[in-house]
Write a structure and sequence with these properties.
It is a single chain. This protein has 723 residues and is α/β, with parallel strands linked by helices. The chain has four domains: 199 residues, Rossmann fold (3-Layer(aba) Sandwich), CATH 3.40.50.280; 75 residues, no CATH class; 120 residues, Transcription Regulator spoIIAA (2-Layer Sandwich), CATH 3.30.750.210; 178 residues, Transcription Regulator spoIIAA. Helix content is 29%, strand content 14%. The strands form nine sheets. The chain has a ten-stranded mixed β-sheet with strand order 3-1-4-5-8-9-15-14-13-10, sandwiched between helices. A three-stranded parallel β-sheet has the order 25-26-27. Strand 14 and strand 15 form a beta hairpin. Helix 10 runs antiparallel to helix 22.
Length: 723
């Protein structure tokens, strides 16, 4: 691992080079490849003697803008570089990583569109039977912790070739992080992978800069000034003003230590999001008394890997600081010690402009899997082949979600013209197109062209969410432009139906009733999935989600406009079990709400602690990083035991006879035997029915087996007679 000391003249700039303004590399003379090569024979057919950049990915190679490695590959190709793909290599030896030879510039490593551990394991840590990103769903085509494994094999194959890691797996593991599968805090993935550089978030700008600078002869260990990058250095240079993170937030351990910290006088923390006098402790007090270099850039030192590994309260504190430093317009660099080395995080990347994002989506994708896969079915491709991504980012800030942490909370919008061009391309090039656009959305369905009303406010804001605990007064919420986009796409020749399948922020939707009317009248395919997640304020507060009253407002609008359109349409709400902050009583209240409203949820999810999320910090530490972490700060109820996690999931499926024994035991323990009986007000019956009387719903119809407000359930398909 190369790791020189960072220098002050390598400070990231807030004025990035436009994405497509670089002088193209000499290899542009080869032109764009019909599809990026995956074999030596394909390289020979293109007339290439070598690749400039080789991307190793844990997903099958699908040349579609919904797949990150296709975007990065085509973007680098547009800069004049020859890009090869090694998709899902066998990882037991270095040989499969040599199939395309030695790249001239660097290897790029990605686990794929998902974290490899989440891709391979359920919330109960059981192996999944299928991989949606692999031909024919094979579940053995990628390793655990794919970024680490791939990087180490590349070091064996070509020790001197730079390795740059990225994707959501690297992005969410860029600092010391709690790992759910090993139940411990792991160090930064940059160290475990032995890579030279880590790119986090939307890495379009950074990867282009890295490629051009390496092509110009700059060494990889000299690239230290790029936003959205992480590297290892020996120490913080003297030119930097080091701010100890505990001078921003007071930290105290979960249990009293053997030698308590010595408290000193308070001072004013100017510029903090929730500025107020703060009591400094330990190292923070010592740091306060050290003179700061004049004119030096600020870098925040968060607790070391060793500190957060041994003290979960410090882990929660580090998580809080990380999430406060995510606004690209005011974020400061972070540094975290790992032994005798520092992991340095530069501020997040500046969002792409509309013209730049249009350019990314207008690249010459084939919009299909690589031809070497033949007729193999790739479920993830089947799902999105006729969908259109209209934006990036999310300002919702849900604590259990990784979208904001990865893509940022500033929305990056495509233009109407670019979106319509993609719809027309789907119509003209896809043999399977039947006139239905399966989705027109993105990370969130209805945040297109929404954002802060004031650039000044946006540049100084440190709020983790623009819509919690309420919608910010500075947030522009008018979704009228989105109505215009829907109408324009519907007007495209041969387009019969446009569905909205992305997650809908119903708290934003109700701000523009005309949008709800347009959505319900034209863009619901019988069922609309939304995610209230819970009914109780305790867990909703820890999720940073709106109260159930907002859902009721949206449901009333949905039903009103459904009746007006003369349609039969249903809402399918999603709920989370076992989220931090949830008690058994909360789950009981949710189950009773479901029964009162005649919901039978057959698809439910259990909280999955993904790396680096705020909810995972709660799960690990029992502290709430959404507020100051102190010795006496709020303790968050945690659902960690497998039995209790399954009980919470059972409450969501109160109607399933398999769950009745566990629910009866829980109700008796909670003193709610009054809910055991055969009446309409009871939650579960007193006795278990014979197995032959239990009704089993076929797996293929479970997604539609939801009853709402007395409306009939979707009839079960009858078996066809043999011909």
């Amino acid at each position: 691992m190369r790791g020189p000391t960072a220098t002050a003249d390598h400070m990231p700039t807030s004025q990035p080079t436009p994405l497509f303004s670089h002088r193209k590399y000499w290899a542009e003379c080869f032109g764009p490849a019909p599809e990026l090569p995956m074999s030596r024979a394909e390289m020979d057919a293109l007339g290439w003697d070598s690749c400039d950049i080789i991307i190793v990915t844990g997903d099958a190679y699908i040349d579609h803008p919904s797949f990150g490695m296709a975007v990065i590959g085509r973007l680098l190709e547009s800069q004049g570089f020859r890009v090869g793909i090694i998709a899902q290599p066998q990882w037991l030896s270095a040989e499969p990583f040599q199939v395309l030879g030695r790249p001239n510039l660097f290897f790029g490593v990605s686990a794929g569109n998902m974290d490899s551990m989440i891709n391979r394991y359920t919330a109960d840590r059981k192996r999944r039977n299928e991989d949606a990103y692999t031909p024919d769903g094979a579940s053995d085509r990628r390793p655990d912790r794919a970024v680490i494994v791939y990087s180490q094999r590349l070091r064996e194959a070509y020790r001197d070739v730079p390795v740059v890691i990225g994707s959501i797996e690297a992005s969410l593991r860029r600092i010391a992080h709690y790992d759910y599968w090993s139940d411990k805090v792991r160090r930064s993935i940059l160290l475990d992978s032995r890579a030279d550089l880590l790119l986090y978030g939307n890495a379009d700008r950074a990867i282009v800069e890295v490629a051009h600078r390496l092509a110009a002869g700059e060494p990889i260990d000299g690239i230290r000034d790029l936003r959205g990058t992480v590297f290892v250095c020996k120490s913080v240079p003297a030119q930097y003003n080091v701010v100890d993170s505990t001078s921003i937030d007071l930290v105290g351990p979960v249990s009293e230590p053997a030698n308590p910290y010595r408290e000193v006088a308070a001072r004013d923390c100017a510029g903090a999001a929730d500025a107020e006098p703060v009591t400094l402790v330990g190292a923070a007090a010592a740091a306060r008394d050290q003179p700061a270099p004049e004119g030096g850039a600020a870098v925040i030192r968060i607790p070391s890997f060793e500190a957060v590994q041994s003290d979960s309260a410090l882990y929660a504190h580090a998580s809080r600081i990380l999430h406060r430093e995510t606004n690209p317009y005011n974020a400061r660099a972070l540094v975290q010690a790992h032994g005798d080395r520092d992991v340095w995080l530069n501020p997040p990347p500046i969002p792409l402009t509309t013209a730049e994002l249009d350019g990314v989506f207008d690249l010459p994708y084939t919009r299909r899997p690589h031809s070497s896969y033949g007729r193999a079915r790739i479920a993830a491709f089947e799902m999105i082949r006729h969908s259109v991504n209209i934006m990036r980012g999310c300002f919702g800030g849900c604590t259990f979600c990784s979208i904001t942490e990865h893509e940022g909370r500033i929305i990056q919008n495509r233009s109407e013209e670019s979106i319509v061009r993609e719809v027309e391309q789907i119509r003209d090039t896809s043999p399977a197109f039947t006139g239905v656009i399966s989705d027109l959305g993105g990370p969130t369905a209805n945040m297109w062209r929404l954002g802060c009303k004031s650039r000044t406010v946006e540049a100084s804001c440190r709020r983790p969410s623009c819509v919690f605990p309420g919608i910010c007064k500075n947030l522009h919420t008018d979704q009228t432009p989105l109505i215009g986009l829907y109408r324009r796409v519907r007007a495209v020749a041969d387009v019969k139906k446009v569905l909205i399948a992305s997650g809908l922020r119903y708290d934003l939707a109700v701000q523009t009733p005309a949008y709800v009317e347009e959505l319900v009248t034209h863009h619901v395919g019988g069922y609309l999935k939304i995610a209230p997640e819970h009914t109780e304020d305790g867990p909703l507060d820890k999720m940073m989600k709106p109260g159930i009253g907002t859902y009721d407002r949206f449901r009333a609008m949905f039903e009103k406009y459904t009746r007006a359109a003369g349609k039969e349409q249903y809402l399918i709400p999603y709920f989370i079990a076992a989220h931090p902050g949830t008690s058994d009583q909360d789950m009981l209240n949710l189950a009773l709400w479901l029964k009162r409203n005649r919901f039978r949820a057959d698809q439910v999810q259990t909280f999955y602690p993904s790396p680096m999320s705020s909810a995972t910090a709660m799960y690990h530490s029992g502290k709430n990083p959404l507020r100051r972490v102190t010795r006496h700060s709020e303790a968050v109820p945690r659902v960690r035991g497998l039995a209790q996690r399954r009980l919470h999931k059972a409450f969501l499926r109160y109607h399933d006879p398999d769950n009745w024994p566990a629910l009866r035991r829980a109700l008796k323990k909670m003193g709610r035997c009054d809910l055991i009986g055969n009446g309409k007000l009871h939650l579960v019956p007193p006795r278990q029915p014979p197995r032959r009387h239990q009704q089993v719903v076929p797996a293929r119809t479970q997604a539609f087996a939801t009853q709402h407000n007395g409306l009939p359930r979707t009839p079960r398909p009858r078996p066809r007679k043999a011909r």
